[in-house]
Amino acid sequence: MPEAPARTASATAVHRVVDAVWRMESARIVGALTRVTGDVGLAEELAQDALVAALEKWPEAGVPDKPGAWLMAAAKHRAIDTFRRTENLQRKTAELGRELVQREQEDPDWAAALDEVVEDDVLRLVLISCHPVLSREARVALTLRLVGGLTTDEIARAFLVAESTVAQRIVRAKRTLTAARVPFEVPAGAEFTARLGSVLEVVYLIFNEGYSATSGQEWVRPALCQEALRLGRILAGLTPGESEVHGLVALMEIQASRLRARVGPSGEPVLLADQDRARWDRTLIGRGLAELERAERAGAGLGPYALQAAIAACHARAATVEDTDWPRIAALYEALAELSPSPVVELNRAVAVSRAYGPAAGLELVEALADVPALQGYHLLPTVRGDLLEQLGRRDEARAEFQRAATLTRNERERGVLIGRAEACARQVGA
């Protein structure tokens, strides 16, 4: 392999490094491999093979100085091996294989060049994953898998659907793209506009996974937020007249401004009401407010992302939680619920209503969501209910809700906070 190991490490530590590198590099690796192979399914398989090789070799040899280049080189060598041993390839695939072998002979450092991926390779990967030949659900699931590097479980939790359903969508999507011979390119005109809605949804879901990780030991994954922001900014540059693109970028900029304040000294979650607002990034807030203005100028009315950005702007402009314009936030959530109905939006509206008009008013809205099927495994439903019950002094009921929420979340940091709140309620009941 091309890089000398920087150090040796325990298998557990190396596995954590491999996971982190995969999160950061997988989209670029899959994108670059798709560009040269023309097959997104094959590209992901080659990238996964390289990941397995890293898990096998890095614990013994140490983590390379440039792990992304190492993974790219490993994937490239597997591509060459695949092309060499496959006898019945179609003409185009055979030509690609010969090109890969020739490049290896002429330029042994080709992998290093591929590591410097063309800036919009990841965007191409998003757009091919959002091709109209796929269903909406398949587009989003495949892009989260390829671009976000998320597991099927994490995607399933983002959609509130079964993991097996997501796995089937991804497999079928890759097969469909291969069969349809979808070109690896940025579409133009009406075709680009047609894909834009699902692309924006994908980008925001990637951002959300970074902003509030569904599982694991980390509460936030800033690299995913940064990647989503990068994609959003590229889209905004490509579509300056699209209000919702600017709305999404505004929303992500403002939310990203809170990332440093959302994590405590030991990595524990810090909720909005407890955050040190001096740690909010004013530069990102300024950029977000400017994007929100562009969204307002570009469209006749605010769409779902721009409405959410307007909600985030209310928080960003407030010096304290008490100074927040909660009635306006509640009204914006009501408008969002009319434009884009969702039980999650209704749950957020209940929180805003509780702040604006009291916990009893919010709890009434939450109770109406108790039997909604999509929220049955959603940990934030009992979390919000527990918070409102605690404010109303019904601490024994609140404790039960926090305990239930703790069993539903897959994020270890969040689980610790919920258990702590349940224990605090129990102490107050026993006092």
What do these coordinates show?
Helix content is 71%, strand content 2%. With 431 residues, the protein is mainly alpha-helical. It has a domain at 1-118. It is globular and about 75 Å long.
The rough form would be described as globular
| Ends apart, CA distance between termini | 64 Å
Low-confidence stretches at least 5 residues in length (pLDDT < 50)? 1-9, 110-119
Backbone CA Rg: 23 Å
Order of helices and strands: EHHEHHHHHHHHEHHHHHHHHHEH
Keywords:
transcription regulation; two-stranded parallel sheet; two-stranded antiparallel ribbon; RNA_pol_sigma-70_dom; mainly alpha; RNA polymerase sigma factor; globular; RNA_pol_sigma_r2; 431 residues; 4 strands
Quick rundown:
The chain is mostly helical and about 425 residues long.
How do the helices and strands line up, and which of them pair or pack?
Layout (H helix, E strand, L loop, with lengths): L4 E3 L3 H27 L2 H22 L1 E2 L2 H19 L5 H16 L3 H6 L5 H9 L6 H11 L5 H8 L3 H18 L8 H23 L3 E2 L5 H17 L4 H14 L25 H17 L5 H14 L8 H14 L3 H15 L1 H9 L12 H12 L3 H14 L1 E2 H19 L1
Helix pairs in contact: 1-2, 1-3, 1-6, 2-3, 3-4, 7-9, 7-10, 8-9, 10-11, 10-12, 11-12, 12-13, 12-14, 13-14, 14-15, 15-16, 16-17, 17-18, 18-19, 19-20
